[in-house]
Amino acid sequence: MVGLRWWNHIDEDGKSHWVFESRKASPQENKTVSEAESRIFWLGLIACPVLWVIFAFSALFSFRVKWLAVVIMGVVLQGANLYGYIRCKVGSRKNFTSMATSYLGKQFLRQNTGEDQTS
């Protein structure tokens, strides 16, 4: 619908590889994917995990423990779907964890070496 897809590929060695793809934008494809369709897709993709979280709090506070397992699975599956499409949209060049670790490491080094201090 919006030119994004992701899946898991297992190679001959048995190693799992996640593949995140996004379609290149071209003038012809802009006609097939309208802005309204894209907004509906992303709104639905973001709204579903939020709804599952609301259901989780509802099940937790109303002491319906047997429904809590179902709701937790809904949160996990919808969250994974959202994460996959965000990785496709942002790009699969870097892992988010490595980006955060790299940023925090640089900030730590700057703070300890005194680069941010001005005379």
From TrEMBL:
Chief location category: membrane
Cellular-component GO terms for this entry: membrane
One Pfam family matching this protein: DUF846
InterPro entries in UniProt: TVP23-like (IPR008564)
Annotated transmembrane regions: 40-61, 67-86
Keyword field contains Ubl conjugation: no
KW rRNA-binding (keyword) present: no
Membrane topology field: Multi-pass membrane protein
Keywords annotated in UniProt: Membrane, Transmembrane, Transmembrane helix
Localization (cell): Membrane
Record family assignment: Belongs to the TVP23 family.
Protein name: Golgi apparatus membrane protein TVP23 homolog
Species of origin: Daubentonia madagascariensis (Aye-aye)
